[in-house]
From TrEMBL, chains A, B, C, D:
PANTHER family: N-ACETYL-GAMMA-GLUTAMYL-PHOSPHATE REDUCTASE, CHLOROPLASTIC-RELATED, N-ACETYL-GAMMA-GLUTAMYL-PHOSPHATE REDUCTASE, CHLOROPLASTIC-RELATED-RELATED. Pathway: Amino-acid biosynthesis; L-arginine biosynthesis; N(2)-acetyl-L-ornithine from L-glutamate: step 3/4. GO terms for biological process: L-arginine biosynthetic process. Residues 29-155 form the Semialdehyde dehydrogenase NAD-binding domain. InterPro entries: AGPR (IPR050085), AGPR_AS (IPR023013), AGPR_dimerisation_dom (IPR058924), AGPR_type-1 (IPR000706), NAD(P)-bd_dom_sf (IPR036291), Semialdehyde_DH_NAD-bd (IPR000534). One of its GO terms (molecular function) is N-acetyl-gamma-glutamyl-phosphate reductase activity. This is Semialdehyde dehydrogenase NAD-binding domain-containing protein. Keywords: Amino-acid biosynthesis, Arginine biosynthesis, NADP, Oxidoreductase. The active site is at C163. PROSITE patterns: ARGC (PS01224).
Length: 330, 330, 330, 330
C-alpha cells in the first residue's frame, strides 16, 4: 500500500501493524467498526471465551461484509507474537489479571474501569474488592485525550475514561483550572441509556482543582441506544461573567471537541456515530450562575472512539486516523 | 340514572349536567377521554372553528365508539343555555376575549396560560401583549389543586396550571412554606416532550416564600408522547437534615400526590395515563443539599386531569370523580 | 357496598365476588389494572412463588395507590374458600397441573396456551411435550368472545386466545364462514412487540371453513410496548366484490369490535390501553384481491381485557363491566 | 495525493474534482456526509434558495466541523464553470426545468422522482401534471445500480431510484428474469418511516418480466428515522423449489447487496448508516410459496448512497469510493 512507506518511517521494526482485541463484549463491536476503515491497523486476534470458534459475523450480522476478521479464540489460545497493541474490553474486575500477564512490549488501552482510579483504596471502596495490580495502576495514564495528551504519548497502559466522566470533565476541567468556577455546588444532571458512578469524575475535577471536589451527579436512564447529554450547573467565581471565552480558547485547536456558536443547544443526534464532543455554555436566570451542556456518543467519544484516539497517539499515528466519521443524522 | 337523585340534591335546577368544551385542540381529546366515563357530566357543546360541522371521530378515530358526542360547532354558533361549566382549551392569547363574553353563571376552567400570572405586567412581558381581561385575571384562582383547594371550591374561573409548574410546585411549595429549603439556588432540570417557561413557577414559589424566588429552570425535550420528570436540586436550610418527613405529612391524605418509599425512583411510565404525581427526595453527595424527583403525565395531572379535578371541586362533586384511571404500564 | 343487592340477585350463594390471580407475571399487572375499577370483583388471593410475601406495589410501583390488594402468596399457601373465579396467568406448560388441582366449582379463564389447541397431538407437536390434562382440554372453550359467546356463557374453563390469533381471526372468521374469501393463499403480515405461532390461527380458520386452512404468517417484532397490527392479504371468492358489508353486518352490534369508515386506516395508537379491535378492508391493486387491516392492544383485547370480557360472561355480568377504558391517545 | 495521477488520467483539465449539490433538502445533508470523506470529490457549489447566504452548519449543527463547505447560494447565482457533476435533490416537479437548463457536459444524478418513470403519460397520471422535459426523460438511465450498471457507465443523466423500489426490485428482478416466480399475486408489505408509491416498482418488474406486472403494495409508517424493510410474498413457478440459490448467484460478487446465511432474518439496524442491502428468502407454510425479506437504510442505499454509487460509476471511479461505512449498530 501507498501508506507503507510513511508507516515504516514510523516504526521500522513493524511488519504489519495489528491490534488484538481481548474480548468480545457489546462494546467491542464498536471498535471493530472503527478499525475496519483504519489504514494502519489490522485485527489479528480477537478473544471471546464463550464464543471461541465462532466468526464475528455469526454474532453480529452487520459485520457480514468483513470477511478478513479472524475467528474468535479463547484467551488462553491467543498468540501475541504478531501483536503490537491491545484494546482490552473485559468486564471490570477481571481485567487486572489479564493485563498483568500480557507481554511487556504491548501498547494497551483498557476500556474497563479497573485502572481509572488512581487511589487503589478508592477502587476497593467502590468496586468491593482489593485491586490486584497496584503496580500497573500506578503506571496507567488516564486517557482523557484532550487533557492528558502529552502523558498518553509515552504511555504503555492507558485507562480509557468512562462515558459520563468524559462528557463532564471535558467542559469542567478547563474552567476549574482557570479558576473561573467555584469548586463547590457543581450539579450534574446527565441523560443517557447507561448507568454510571461518580468517583472518576471527582478524581478528575479534584486533580484540576488541586483540592477535593465533591459533585452532585444524577444520571437519568433514557430510551436511547446511543447518546449522552450532561447538563452542568455551576457557580461562577466572584466577578467572573464569562465562561464561553475560556472554553473557546481551550478547545479552538481541537478536532474532536467543539464549542458551538453562542445560543446553539448541543443535541445528542448531532454527534451520533462520531467521536465529537459538542458543548456550549448558557447564562442562568440566577445571577452568578451558568449552565453548561455537553453531548457525546457514549459508544464513540465515550468509549471505543476515544480508545482509538488514544491508541493512535501511543503509536505515533495522526490522532484522528480512522476517526473521520461525520455524525449520522438523523 | 341512579345517580340523578344525588346529583339533583346538588343543584335542583339542572336537568342535565353538561360541560362545554370551547375548542378542539390536541389537548382537548384528553379531556373527552376523561369525561366519557364521568358519571355527572355530559358534553353538550364542542366548538372548533376550522372543523365546525365535523364529528370528533372524524378527527380522532379513537373516539369512534363515542356516538353521543355532539357535532363540532363554531364558537359563534355555540348555545350556552344548557351548559353549566366550560373547559376552555384555546391557544394562549385568544382566550381572554372568549371568556369575557361567556354568561356569568358558568363555572370555567381555563387550560391556557392567559390567567395563570397574577401580575398582568408580567403577562405582558412574557407574552408580548397587554392583558385584555385584567378584571377576570384578578378573579381567577390558580388551580394547583392540592395547594389551593379551598379557594377553588368557590371559584368561578380557575386558571389551570401548566405541566412544568405542576410537577415542580407540588414538591417545592410545602418545603418552602415550612422553611426547610433555601429560596436561592433552586435548580430544576426537567425532561418532557413539551417546552415551557418559568414565570409561573417563580410566581408560585415566591408566593409560598413570601419573597421573590428566582430559579434555574432547564427543560429538555425528550422523544416521549406522555410523561414529564422534574429533577430539582435544593440547598437545605441550616440544620435541616430531612425533607422526606415534611412531604409525607403534606401529602399523606392526598389521593393524587404520592410520596414513594424511600429510595424508589419515580418513573414517568408509572403514572402514564393517570392523574397521579409521584415524588421522592434523595440525599445529595454534597452535604446540606437534597435532590427531589417528581413525575406526572403532562397530559393528565399536567393538563386535562387536573382541570377535571378542579371542575369537580367547583361543582361540589367528589374530587376524584372520573379520575380513577390507574397508570397504563407498560 | 351499594352494589351488593344487585349482585346478590345475580347469585344468591356468593357472599363476596372475588377473583384469584394465580401468578404474577408481566401479564398479570394488566389484569390488576382492569380489576381495580371493576364493581363486582375484588382480588382476594394473588400467588407468586418467587415473590411470596411481597406486596404488589413493591414489584410494580404504579400500584402504589392500590392499598387493598392482598400480599402475594405461594401457590401452596393459596386458600380458595372465598374464591369464585380464577384468572390463570402461568407460563405455558405448568398450567395444566395447577388447573387440574383447583376446586371444581371455580370459573377459570386461562391465559396460557395450554388449552387453546383442541387437538392434543397438535399441542404435543408444537410445545414438545404431551398434554397432561386432556380431559380439561376437551372441556375448555376457546374464548374468542365475539365468535364463541354462547359457548362461553356456560363454560367452566375458558382458554383465552393469543394476541395474534385474536387480531387475525376476528376479521377472517366471518369472511370465511360466509364463503366470501378463498381459503388458500391467506397471507398474514403482523407487527407487534411479541412473537407468536400459527397453529391456533389455522385451527380457528379451519373450524370456520369446515376444512383445513393453511396460512402464511409472518410476525415482525417492532419496538412498541403495546399494540399489534395484522395486515391480511386475501383472494376473494369468484364474483365477490365486497367484504366490507359482511364485516359491517357481523360486528355492527358489537361493543369492542369496530369496522372503521371506508378508507380510514386502523392505527395501533387508536386502541392503546382499550379492549377494542379496530378493522377495515381495502381494495387491492391486483384484481380479485383485498387487504384487511386489524389492530388491537395486545395486552388488552389480546390478553387481559378479553379474559375479563370472558369472565364477565361466565359470571353473568354485563360483558363490558370494567372494560370501559377509552384508548389512551397519544 | 497518490490518487491524483489516476484521477488526472480521467480528466486532465480538472484541477479539483467537484460536485455541485443543487439544493438543500433534508435528503441533502446525507449526501454531504458521504462526500465529506470522498477522496475525489469536493463540493464547490450548494444551492438553497430560501437559505441563500447561510452556512450549512447553521442549518445542520452536525456539520460544524466541515469548515470547507461553500456558503449556500440561490440557484440563479450558481456558477457551473468549475463543476463536473451535479447531485440534484430538488422536490418532484421542479426538477425538470432546472436540469434542462444545466450545461450539457455535466454528469447528473437526480434524486427526485421526475425521471424515474419511462412512460411520460404514466408520470402525468401519478403526479398530476404533464412532463416538461420528455427528451431528458428519454435519455435518463434508471439508476438501480446492480441491475443497470452497464447503462449507467455511459449515462449523462441518471434517475436515482426511490427507496421502496430499491428494496423491492433488488430481490425480485433476478427472480423474475430467471422465471423462478410467478408474475401474478406478488404481495409486498413494507415498513419504514416514509410513504411511497407503486408505479416505479411495477415498471421495473414489468421490464424484467417482459410483460405487465401488477403488485399488491402496502407501505406501513413506522416510528423510525432510518431503515426500511420489505416483506415480499411470492408464488414460485411450477416445479421450482429454490430461490436462495438464484439470489446467491446474482449477488455473490456484489459489494453492497448481501444474501444472508439461510435462516438469518435481515434487520434494519444491521444496515443503518451503510449502503448495504441485506436480503434473505424463507420457506412459506403454504406449499409453493416463498417469503423474501430485504432491508436497506432508506437514506443511504435508498437515496444518497446509491446516488453516489451511481456517480462514481459515471465518473469512472471505483464504485465503492466514499461508501465504505460499516453499519452503525446499535
Amino acid at each position: 500500500m501507498a501508506m507503507a512507506g510513511w508507516y515504516q518511517s514510523l516504526d521500522q521494526q513493524l511488519v504489519a501493524a495489528s491490534v488484538r482485541l481481548s474480548c468480545i463484549l457489546f462494546l467491542d463491536s464498536k471498535i471493530i467498526r472503527l478499525l475496519a476503515n483504519h489504514p494502519f491497523f489490522g485485527i489479528t486476534v480477537m478473544t471471546a471465551d464463550r464464543n471461541a470458534g465462532k466468526s464475528i459475523e455469526s454474532l453480529f450480522p452487520h459485520f457480514i461484509t468483513q470477511k478478513d476478521l479472524p475467528i474468535l479464540v479463547s484467551s488462553n489460545d491467543a498468540i501475541f507474537s504478531d501483536v503490537d497493541a491491545v484494546l482490552c474490553c473485559l468486564p471490570h474486575g477481571t481485567t487486572q489479571e489479564i493485563i498483568k500477564a500480557l507481554p511487556k512490549g504491548l501498547k494497551i488501552v483498557d476500556l474497563s474501569a479497573d485502572f481509572r482510579l488512581r487511589d487503589t483504596s478508592e477502587y476497593e471502596e467502590w468496586y468491593g474488592q482489593p485491586h490486584r495490580a497496584p503496580d500497573l495502576q500506578e503506571e496507567a495514564i488516564y486517557g482523557l485525550t484532550e487533557i492528558f495528551r502529552e502523558e498518553i504519548k509515552n504511555a504503555r497502559l492507558v485507562a480509557n475514561p468512562g462515558c459520563y466522566p468524559t462528557s463532564i470533565q471535558l467542559p469542567l476541567v478547563p474552567l476549574i483550572k482557570s479558576k473561573l468556577i467555584e469548586y463547590k455546588n457543581i450539579i450534574i444532571d446527565s441523560k443517557s441509556g447507561a448507568s454510571g458512578a461518580v468517583p472518576e469524575i471527582e478524581q478528575g475535577l479534584s486533580h484540576a482543582a488541586h483540592s477535593k471536589v465533591t459533585v452532585s451527579f444524577t444520571p437519568h436512564l433514557m430510551p436511547m441506544s446511543r447518546g449522552m447529554q450532561s447538563t452542568i450547573y455551576v457557580e461562577m467565581a466572584p466577578g467572573v461573567t464569562h465562561l464561553y471565552q475560556q472554553l473557546k480558547v481551550s478547545y479552538e485547536d481541537e478536532e474532536f471537541v467543539k464549542l458551538l456558536e453562542k445560543g446553539v443547544v448541543p443535541r445528542t443526534h448531532d454527534v451520533r456515530g462520531s467521536n465529537y464532543c459538542y458543548m456550549n455554555v448558557f447564562p442562568d436566570r440566577i445571577s452568578g450562575r451558568a449552565i453548561i451542556i455537553s453531548v457525546i456518543d457514549n459508544l464513540v467519544k465515550g468509549a471505543s472512539g476515544q480508545a482509538l484516539q488514544n491508541l493512535n497517539i501511543m503509536m505515533g499515528f495522526p490522532e484522528n486516523t480512522g476517526l473521520g466519521y461525520l455524525p449520522l443524522f438523523p
